[in-house]
Recover the amino acids of this structure.
């Protein structure tokens, strides 16, 4: 057990933004909100998974919608107590702790803010180990946890409760409500016991995010080592490409950000071209027509000098970035994981190959 104080928030936000694989929302607004909540209500207690009593009731809280909308729309503070009160009313029991739904930038901050304001602890775990666009694309679903009741609140005061026949239907109906609410909402869902949670999460998410954030923050000051080499070695990220963004295509539809970014090589990659496609998160990357990574592995664009992650809504012409990747949690490499979040779920006509194998092929070529 430890606490999350003001001094921890920046690194958690920064590292979570890398784990967000381009999605999970820009952490800027969420970071400001979390700082304000901790200043007003004090540090948040962070519990490791094994410290949570088996009979507790825990649930993940997050923002759902198009990341570009969340950056402009934000929240107004009424959503967190509203979804919690409704969840407790539906369950007829008190909520004992919050979870992270995913390891995305904005969605790493929402649970900290909600926990601080509610005076509840936060569990050091999430349901993805990264960020995915689908409500049902989490390890809770993989382990048979229902989203019911799925509670949705917007900044206007509207609150909706869904009870659906399965988690896929929660995604369909929930996405329509999100769109009707302006493209961004706050949700609290998938309540489970502490015992069930222990077998259904990716453990250590907050600590891992904070470690990655510290690596990014200190890379430029690395002693006796090139900053890029330090960042790659310490983070374990695999480098695919260094380039300048020369084209960005994006559109918002059905509550998602869709798009493609094209990069022209610089430095040792001069004369080469890379393409990264995204649906909220980066889902596919190729260099000179050769696939270098696909979901569910993490594909990340980071500033070529500071290594600060660049989320999909912040991709801009002329930006110089590194395209890097990280292996996904082993849960996503199972048959069920690939069915729920592999390339073909996203409409990509390719088979999943682990990022390490693709990297080895390029090295051997």
């Amino acid at each position: 057990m430890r606490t999350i104080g003001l001094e921890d928030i920046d690194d958690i936000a920064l590292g979570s933004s890398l784990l967000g694989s381009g999605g999970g929302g820009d952490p800027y607004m969420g970071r400001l909100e979390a700082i304000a909540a901790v200043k007003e209500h004090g540090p948040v207690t962070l519990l490791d998974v094994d410290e949570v009593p088996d009979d507790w009731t825990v649930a993940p809280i997050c923002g759902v919608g198009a990341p570009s909308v969340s950056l402009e729309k934000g929240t107004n503070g009424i959503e967190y107590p509203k979804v919690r009160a409704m969840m407790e009313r539906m369950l007829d029991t008190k909520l004992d702790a919050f979870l992270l739904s995913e390891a995305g930038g904005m969605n790493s901050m929402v649970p900290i803010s909600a926990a601080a304001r509610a005076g509840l602890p936060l569990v050091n775990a999430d349901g993805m180990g990264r960020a995915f666009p689908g409500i049902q694309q989490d390890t809770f679903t993989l382990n048979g946890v229902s989203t019911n009741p799925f509670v949705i609140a917007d900044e206007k005061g509207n609150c909706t409760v869904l009870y659906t026949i399965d988690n896929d239907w929660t995604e369909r109906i929930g996405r329509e409500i999100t769109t009707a609410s302006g493209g961004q909402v706050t949700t609290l869902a998938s309540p489970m016991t502490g015992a069930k949670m222990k077998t259904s999460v990716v453990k250590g998410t907050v600590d891992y995010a904070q470690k990655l954030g510290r690596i990014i923050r200190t890379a430029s000051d690395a002693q006796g080592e090139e900053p890029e080499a330090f960042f790659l070695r310490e983070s374990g990220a695999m480098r695919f490409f260094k380039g300048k963004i020369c084209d960005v295509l994006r559109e918002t539809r059905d509550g998602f950000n869709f798009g493609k970014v094209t990069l022209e090589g610089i430095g040792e990659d001069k004369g080469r071209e890379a393409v990264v496609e995204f649906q909220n998160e980066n889902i596919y990357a190729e260099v000179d027509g050769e696939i270098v990574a696909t979901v569910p592995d993490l594909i990340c664009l980071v500033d070529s000098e500071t290594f600060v992650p660049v989320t999909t809504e912040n991709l801009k012409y002329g930006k110089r970035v590194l395209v890097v990747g990280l292996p996904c949690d082993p849960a996503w490499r199972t048959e069920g994981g690939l069915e729920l979040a592999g390339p073909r779920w996203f409409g990509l006509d390719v088979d999943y190959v682990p990022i390490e194998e693709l990297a080895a092929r390029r090295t051997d070529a």
About this structure: Residues 271 and 293 are 20 Å apart (CA to CA). The two ends are 47 Å apart (CA to CA).
